[in-house]
Amino acid sequence: MLAEGTTKIKDYLTKTKLETLDFVINPYSGCPHRCLYCYAAYMVSFSKHAERWGEFLDIRYTKKKINLYKIKNKKVMISTVTDPYNPYEEKYKITRNVMEQVSNSEAFITVMTKSKLVLRDIDLFKKTKNIEIVISICTTDETLKEKLEPCSSSLSERIETLRVLKDNGIKTVVFISPILPGLTDYKKIIEMTKEYTDEYRFDKLNLRSSFKTNMLNFISYEYPSLVSLYYDIYKNKNNRYFEEISLEIEDYCRKNGIIYRNFIAGEKFAS
């Protein structure tokens, strides 16, 4: 059972050091999607919860309105350490409240999610001057998806979400992330989504703290043939795999006329 709470904050806007953004907005603390590889799991150390990451969710609340002048012509992401359209958003509508405010702004808004619930707010997206919806996908294998991302929308639901967004004239981005060594077939993801996608972005699997052990244990149990590869990357810190796939992705995208941004090579996005 998920532990729910409320956290009163001063402001939804947080200045960020991420190279591609100016501000982030995280409507929740914690994330019930429980993705095994989640880089944001380190946030548990900043919470007051005894529960593990994925077992709690704090609803972030403030009466202060978002300063639209402050974000004019700035890049704002919703969000970086939680899914703004997690299942509890249907009940609390914190993200919708945020979107109602920023839809009147001159900011460049990026919304990143794994959830079909994002479609609920199409009316607000259509009112927003500069917006892109980023749907993250790391595998085309639904069985693997259920093991890695047990509480998020299915692949078929995400593709349908992209289609509906595209049909409504909203810029769509597929974030192929994290690229799981030996498991993520980025070409297949592109083939399945290219009809509804304006741009692709790529990033690697980053592992640290306790979820590094969890992910390596998962690979050892589910994919023993990949153990040596993962240990070479994450124990021996050999970056050759990602260096090679980064070059491969760039070559593939250029040859196929795909608009893309590659964060594997070092440019930071949301990790």
Tell me the total number of β-strands: 11
How would you state the average pLDDT, rounded?
Answer: 92
Shape: globular
* Percentage of residues in DSSP E strands: 15-25%
As laid out across the biggest beta sheet, the strand order is: 2-3-6-7-8-9-10-11
Poorly predicted segments: none
CATH class: Alpha Beta
Helix content: 25-40%
Determine the structural class based on helices, strands and strand pairing.
alpha/beta
- The rounded distance between the terminal residues' Cα atoms is 28 Å
- Rg from C-alpha positions? 18 Å
Order of helices and strands: EEEEEEHHEHEHHEHEHHHE
Summed up, the helix count is 9
Biggest sheet features: 8 strands, mixed
Domain count, please report it. Answer: 1
CATH topology: TIM Barrel
Which architecture name does CATH use? Alpha-Beta Barrel
What can you tell me about this protein's structure?
It is a single chain. This protein is of the alpha/beta class and 271 residues long. The chain has a single domain (3-262), classed as TIM Barrel. 31% of the residues lie in helices and 21% in strands. The protein has nine helices and eleven strands. The chain has helices spanning 89-92, 94-102, 122-125, 142-148, 155-167, 186-193, 209-222, 227-234, 240-255; strands at residues 3-8, 13-15, 23-25, 28-29, 56-61, 75-78, 108-113, 130-137, 171-179, 199-204, 260-262. It has an eight-stranded mixed sheet, with helices on one face. A three-stranded mixed sheet has the order 1-5-4, with no helix packed on it. Helix 6 links the parallel strand 9 and strand 10. Helix 7 packs antiparallel against helix 8 (227-234). The longest helix is centred in the last third of the chain and has 16 residues, at 240-255. The radius of gyration is 18 Å and the shape is globular. The model has no long low-confidence stretch (mean pLDDT 92).
